[in-house]
Design goal:
With about 1450 residues, the chain is mainly beta. Helix content is about 5%, strand content about 45%. The protein contains eleven helices and 90 strands. The protein has a nine-stranded antiparallel sheet with strand order 6-12-13-14-15-22-19-18-17, with no helix packed on it. The protein has a nine-stranded antiparallel sheet with strand order 23-29-30-31-32-39-36-35-34, with no helix packed on it. Strands 40-46-47-48-49-56-53-52-51 form a nine-stranded antiparallel sheet, with no helix packed on it. The N terminus is likely disordered.
């Protein structure tokens, strides 16, 4: 040991003896050699012999980064594959016990042989420390023989391990420490995280399990039994040998299967409590989206739950069994944080092995529905192509307790008889050609009732999919119970089909057919034509006795029909094939060449979607009335005494395509931070305009941290009668509910309420009345209202008429009260400005609220509708998106199409909005005064810098008699592809035909992965100008996408084309530095043209004077970072001038100037303008405070903040009040607050919103300086605030020095500490240009960058405002009229972060690099003013 060196602290000792020895590290609970842990005997520290102790025990040493955290009570295996250097053993074995203890041992201590690594013991875990062998084993502590060392399996591996395939990554299968929630705290094996399609942080621990409150642990070793298949154990937990198997399959890599098997070794029967759970990783944004019971809560009635809510994190699906075996308990806080867990109580007999099988699955955020049908049974789990039971043996599957075991298949044919009914020979039956093809069809061959036979002749309940009969494929039929037969899954192309037929034991004359189809084809989805039919046995005596439409004719308007035999020889047959909300695409009375009944449904499938068709065939005595009451809806089917939906799970029922789903009230719908609570019949008091009684609507709403938005939302009456639902409503999809039709007077009333998944703060109400009376017409008085939490006073903040009152001149009103900072603000919209209410009230229910009335005339047999909206906003939000509600066109715009799910017929029935304009055929031309724009439509272009083809744009134009301005103008490509003009195209004019403006919208049309809308507008007050807005909505895979948009115009000047002027220093060349160019014709034969393709904040990536092979102007813009379904736009202008005229370039300097000086932005809503990428947004004034949340980062309360005196003067300064990361709060008590020569920058709590997370205050006069303060939270780096402080000297003294001092109070108080600085120490000084500080293990750490290394501050402080923080000063020399700027950054990090990302902040160049460009939205003109960084 003479050549050994030592270092240690309280937890680690390193002993380095050079080439002859490893490094021995002693931890409080473990020993390791070369980072490989050795077993220890207890939780207590293990003493080293005094000869091995270093002389200086205070020398710090870092824990080896590759040393796993092995619990002290467990034996540890040494895998033969571990990277241990092969060194000679030391001359004396290393022991951690005294020599007397060693002499009592019958076994020598383990040692490392000169050229071998010891074989590991089996990867098992004892449940108590006493069962774990110490390094030197005494006789009393020797383990039982069953736990002695055994040869190591060759496929044993050390954890953690990760698995990734095709966009999915499951990260770090390892032992994870979890806190206490509804499950016990401790350490258990599981997945620490998961990623799908680039979206990460799905879990903070997934699929951890306890048996009798003891976690299953791996000691970070597992056996790999296949690709993505890992086995831990068996692990001893009291009287159980527990094996934990997790598997990710290549054919479904988003899925993690967990198989937990328990072998009971006790001597008498016992019960085990098994808990399994996952921390979702969603933190505050956690929300239950859907569950198997059909609601948005997770209860013991559920076999699966789907969670999400954060647009930056994966949605998660948790399947815990099938509907036959529900859990004893569930949790949404298994480890003290948001997640999901379940408990099963399992009986065991001695020697018995029983197992639990469950699944975790991840989806890209925003995915509406999980593939829950896959998890409905063991049969569906086993269905190809993604067999989720693969690698499990039949014996293992038979041990599963939380899924119903599949019945053994029986053979064909099958028959069933009970009481007076008989159903004969379910089998493949040959049928002849009719409207369905000839072939071998699966179904009944015949049936009889009350002695009447031959109900069917050639068979019943046969189905085809796209013209192909369902084959039995030689498979058997499962018989869950007598009379119940299940065939499949059977593969038919891209479809997996299950044919399920059941005769009701309590209603044996009835046969139910449930045809379930799962699609696994291409991502664009598919539409299947499903045709089902039965051949009547009545032959030529066949007749239709009655149909649902009231006649004796079968049509597509029918959903049931009763047939008979005119001789009464055979039974009557009742066919029910949907409810009144469904409609067959075709029907037939000759499905197989002789009389019968057939019907067809067209069913749309998304990728991996499952849809189903449900229909019934029932026998009856001749002349018996049809049993229509039972077959009205899924509700009546389920609630009848015979329950004709018995054996179908809720998840199966939810897939039915030809019946409207049902759900019991009340229901709550959560998505993201929004919750619409308790839709139900609400008891309304008297004393208001609406009558007292029960009215259907939402009872409350919550957004972010504000709650109790309403006491009633969207309650309506028709002719003074409230619409009430009773106990159940139709349920087309989560958040969508339908009441009715119910009868009020002579009106059939249908009430449809839907929360939009892409705009969850919005609830749409769609109320339809159909007049059924005898008069030619009748008036329906419809009164609808919402109560703004009636026990509080609220204010009208704004209204459509521009004031703070609410009158019948308003189409919308925005309400709230700043005094109640825990309550949302509310937006009410009840039509557009063309259809104002006939009456309004602020007392709808006897308290404060909003009510409105529309009186509509409805003709006999006609349907008319009223549509209105309610929205909730976080308290204090004054920026209302009222433009979205200006017209049906705006409502229909993507990505939040608020007319989504409404049919064309429904939209045409709307009475309180101006109808959508009818389409007009292309091409279109427009003339006004002396300007003409010719033939907007398809234009053929030749090859140039744009490809040849047929593009969309203007063919030509003229001004003042000069023609041929173009040979094609404003033609664009997306990634090189022209906008397709489909056969029979139409351009939609968005103004009245007689209007004086030329406005045309084409699209949306598909170009690559984008839905493209081309919007061209010629204004009436400037007809020489054409405005083009090209909008792209990304609908491709869930990854951030890009697009290159190239637009150009071919000049009519040909060889006489010239550039007269350009924006770059006024030269006569076109370059990417230009944002406009003015061209002419040297012969003066054609008009001059001004092309404007952005403002100073934008830059083209290419520019050309040869767009189509001849002289003209073209430019391209690169648009990046498209999120799924995000819309981004390019806006440009083309303007004609007479020869010699000066172009009015200054009108196009900004959108603000265009908006205030012209009508060129008319028809563009604020929401559309916010999508424009090549112009700086119009500054929208907002009242502060405001907060911004992105991913798990929240920057709170930007406003004027009161600060105390410190090294920076006290006062009120503009900045951020606080910040947080997930649940780690209180990053600041004021951030980014600055003074100019000791005077604070105060905004008056008013700022401009430049874009999402982008605010600018100013101009603010501070002494002799006009100050603009710009604060940005970058979309792709939400932990960062960029501060850009710009000063213009308005004084007259040359060479004036200004002192700019900026600082932040970290919020850390007494726990504040400087962790690192740019100069390498832990002291902030004027030698530093950045500092990294921490304040506690609870609050975020913070990073401050205040320049580059060439521009160090003149002063610094860690007490800017009297408490701990960081401040810095720069001194700048000004000349009169000169502008200089300071650029600095503040970032937050999770507590415990060791170092910041300081490399990003080295220079303006590094700031600009990568997807997280921190100089975004700063044009070169502003960058040139920066004083504390070297220029680019």
């Amino acid at each position: 040991m003479d050549h050994c060196s030592f270092s240690s602290d309280s937890s680690v000792m390193n002993i380095d003896c050079g080439a002859n020895s490893g490094v021995l590290a002693l931890f409080a609970d473990r020993i390791s050699v070369h980072g490989i842990p050795l077993p220890s005997s207890s939780n207590s520290p293990v003493p080293l012999p005094s000869a091995l102790l270093p002389s200086d025990s205070s020398s710090p040493v870092l824990e080896p980064s590759n040393s796993p955290n092995v619990p002290s009570q467990s034996p540890v295996a040494f895998p033969s594959s571990s990277p241990i250097p092969q060194s000679p053993a030391p001359s004396t074995p290393v022991s951690t016990t005294s020599s007397s203890a060693a002499s009592q041992s019958s076994s020598p201590p383990p040692s490392i042989a000169p050229s071998t690594v010891p074989s590991p013991p089996p990867p098992s875990t004892a449940s108590s420390p006493s069962a774990t062998p110490p390094l030197v084993v005494s006789p009393s502590a020797r383990p039982p023989p069953s736990q002695s060392a055994q040869p190591t399996p060759e496929n044993q591996m050390r954890l953690p391990v990760s698995f990734s395939f095709v966009g999915s990554e499951w990260q770090a299968l390892t032992d994870i420490s979890v806190g206490k929630g509804d499950m016990n705290y401790g350490v258990g094996v599981g997945w620490s995280d998961a990623v799908i399609n680039g979206y990460g942080d799905a879990y903070d621990g997934a699929a951890l399990c306890t048996v009798n409150n003891i976690y299953v642990k791996s000691n970070n070793f597992a056996i790999q039994t296949g690709d993505g298949n890992y086995v831990v154990g068996p692990v001893t937990i009291k009287d159980f040998q527990v094996t934990y198997n997790t598997r990710i399959a290549r054919d479904r890599p988003e899925n993690s299967r967990t198989f937990l098997s328990m072998a009971y070794t006790g001597n008498s029967p016992t019960v085990a409590e098994v808990w399994c759970g996952s921390d979702s990783g969603a933190d505050k944004s956690f929300a239950v989206m859907e569950s198997s019971s059909g609601d948005s809560s997770f209860t013991t009635e559920d076999s699966w739950v789907y969670t999400g809510g954060d647009s930056e994190k994966p949605f998660t699906f948790f399947s815990i069994g099938d509907s036959s075996y529900l859990p004893a308990n569930v949790s949404t806080s298994p480890f003290g944080r948001s997640g999901f867990g379940f408990k099963y109580t399992i009986d065991f007999n001695p020697g018995e092995t029983r197992s639990v099988l469950f699944f975790n699955e991840i989806y890209s955020p925003g995915t509406k529905y999980p593939d829950f049908e896959k998890f409905s049974s063991l049969s569906s789990l086993k269905a190809k192509p993604d067999n989720l039971l693969d690698s499990l043996t039949a014996q293992q599957i038979s041990s599963i307790v939380n899924w119903e075991q599949n019945p053994l298949p029986s053979s064909f044919p099958q028959s069933f008889a009970q009481n007076n009914a008989a159903w004969d020979n379910l089998d493949e039956i040959s049928v002849s050609q009719g409207d369905l093809p000839a072939g071998d069809a699966l179904g009944w061959s015949d049936a009889s009732w009350n002695g009447r036979t031959n109900a069917f002749n050639n068979g019943a309940s046969f189905c085809t999919i796209d013209g192909v009969y369902i084959p039995t494929s030689g498979a058997g039929v499962s018989v869950p119970e007598p009379g119940h037969y299940v065939v499949g899954p059977i593969t038919m192309g891209f479809y997996s089909v299950v044919y399920d037929v059941r005769v009701s034991p309590s209603r044996p004359q009835n046969s139910r057919t449930f045809l379930s189809i799962s699609y696994s084809g291409p991502a664009e989805g598919a539409t299947a034509k499903i045709y089902c039919g039965s051949d009547s046995g009545a032959g030529n005596n066949f007749s239709i006795r009655q149909s649902s439409s009231g006649d004796s004719i079968l049509s597509v308007d029918d959903n049931w029909v009763l047939t008979g035999d005119s001789t009464s020889t055979t039974p009557d047959v009742f066919y029910s094939f949907g409810d009144e909300f469904s409609q067959a695409s075709s029907v037939t009375t000759s499905p197989f060449g002789s009389p019968g009944i057939g019907f067809e449904f067209s069913v749309k499938f998304g990728t991996f979607a499952t849809r189903s068709i449900l229909f019934f065939t029932e026998l009856s005595d001749p002349g018996s009335p049809p049993p229509t009451a039972i077959f009205e809806s899924l509700s009546t089917l389920m609630n009848s005494s015979d329950n004709l939906l018995k054996s179908l799970s809720i998840s199966q029922i939810d897939t039915i395509d030809n019946w409207q789903s049902i759900i019991e009230l009340p229901q709550t719908f959560n998505i993201g931070t929004v919750s619409w609570e308790a839709i139900k019949d609400i008891s309304l008091p008297s004393g208001g305009v609406l009558p007292s009684g029960d009215g259907f609507g939402w009872s409350d709403a919550t957004i972010d941290v504000t709650e109790n938005g309403f006491d009633a939302v969207g309650v309506c009456s028709v002719n003074g009668v409230l619409i009430s639902a009773g106990s159940e409503v139709g349920y087309p999809e989560p958040g969508h509910f339908i009441v009715g039709p119910i009868t009020i007077d002579d009106f059939a009333v249908l009430y449809d309420i839907r929360v939009h998944p892409e705009r969850p703060q919005n609830s749409r109400s769609f109320l339809t009345v159909t007049y059924t009376g005898a008069n030619p017409s009748a008036t329906a008085s419809i009164y609808c209202a919402s109560d703004y939490h009636g026990d509080l006073t609220f204010d009208v903040v704004s209204s459509s008429s521009g004031d703070t009152s609410f009158t019948s001149a308003d189409s919308w009103v925005f309400t709230g009260n700043e005094a109640y900072d825990t309550r949302p603000f509310s937006f009410f919209n009840f039509g557009d400005s063309n259809f104002l209410p006939s009456e309004v009230t602020r007392n709808p229910f006897g308290g404060d609220g909003i009510g409105f009335k529309h009186d509509i005339i409805v003709n006999a047999g006609e349907s008319r509708s009223i549509m209105f909206f309610n929205e909730v906003y976080s308290n204090g939000r004054s920026l209302v998106d009222s433009e979205k509600f200006s017209s049906l066109i705006a409502l229909q715009s993507e990505p939040d199409n608020l007319l989504d799910s409404l049919t064309k017929t429904q939209i045409e029935s709307i009475a309180n909005w101006k109808p959508l304009s009818p389409p007009h055929p292309l091409p279109q031309s427009y003339s006004l005064l002396d300007a003409t724009w010719d033939n907007f439509g398809p234009v053929s272009v030749g090859p140039g810098d744009l490809p040849p083809g047929v593009g969309l744009g203007w063919l030509d134009a003229s001004l003042g008699g000069k023609t041929n301005a173009f040979n094609g103008a404003s033609i664009c490509t997306i990634d090189g592809a022209h906008i397709p003009v489909m056969p029979g195209p139409s351009a939609k004019i968005t103004v009245d035909d007689g209007s004086s403006s030329g406005h045309y919208i084409y699209g949306p049309t598909q170009v690559g992965n984008f839905d493209v809308v081309y919007d061209v507008f010629v204004s009436s007050d400037r007809p020489q100008t054409s405005r083009t807005l090209l909008s792209l909505t990304y609908n491709g895979p869930p990854v951030e996408a890009t697009a290159t948009v190239y637009c150009g115009s071919e000049s009519g000047a040909a060889d006489n084309f010239s550039i007269l002027e350009s924006s770059s220093s006024g030269d006569t060349t076109l370059s990417t530095e230009d944002i406009w160019v003015y061209t002419g014709d040297t012969s003066s034969a054609t008009p001059n043209i001004l092309y404007i393709f952005g403002d100073e904040f934008s830059q083209t990536v290419s520019a050309t004077t040869n767009p189509f092979g001849g002289n003209g102007v073209g430019f391209s813009h690169f648009i990046d970072n498209f999120a799924p379904f995000e819309t981004k736009s390019i806006l440009f202008f083309t303007e004609m001038y007479n020869t010699g005229e000066t172009a009015e370039k200054n009108l196009f300097s900004s959108l603000e100037v265009l908006s205030s000086s012209t009508t060129l932005l008319d028809t563009l809503s604020n929401s559309l303008l916010r999508t424009v990428t090549n112009w700086q947004p119009i500054r929208e004034s907002v009242t502060l405070p405001e907060s911004v949340e992105s991913s798990s980062y929240t920057w709170q309360r930007i406003r004027d903040i009161d600060v105390d005196d410190g090294d920076i003067n006290g006062g009120s300064g503009f900045g951020w009040g606080d910040a947080s990361i997930a649940d780690d709060l209180d990053a600041f008590d004021g951030s980014g607050i600055c003074t100019i020569n000791g005077l604070h920058i105060t905004s008056g709590n008013l700022a401009y919103l430049l874009g999402e997370g982008h605010y600018e205050a100013g101009p603010i006069q501070v002494g002799d300086y006009s100050v603009m303060y710009d604060l940005l939270i970058p979309k792709n780096r939400p932990q960062t605030v960029r501060s850009f402080l710009s000063l213009t000297y308005t004084g007259s003294v040359p060479g004036t020095t200004c002192e700019i001092y900026c600082g932040s109070d970290t919020g850390g108080d007494s726990e504040f500490s400087v962790l690192r600085t740019s100069s390498g120490d832990a002291v902030v000084s004027t030698n530093d240009n950045w500092a990294f500080v921490g304040n506690s293990t609870r609050a975020p750490f913070s990073f401050y960058s205040f320049g580059d290394s060439s521009h160090l501050p003149t002063d610094v402080t860690i007490s800017p405002f009297g408490t701990h923080g960081v401040g810095f000063q720069h001194q700048i020399l000004f000349q009169p009229g000169e502008t200089h700027s300071i650029l600095f950054f503040t970032e937050i990090y999770s507590p415990g972060t060791l170092s910041p990302d300081d490399s990003k902040f080295q220079s303006l160049s590094t700031l600009q690099q990568g997807i997280d460009n921190l100089l975004v939205a700063l044009p070169q003109s502003k960058l040139d003013t920066i004083a504390n960084w070297n220029s680019l």
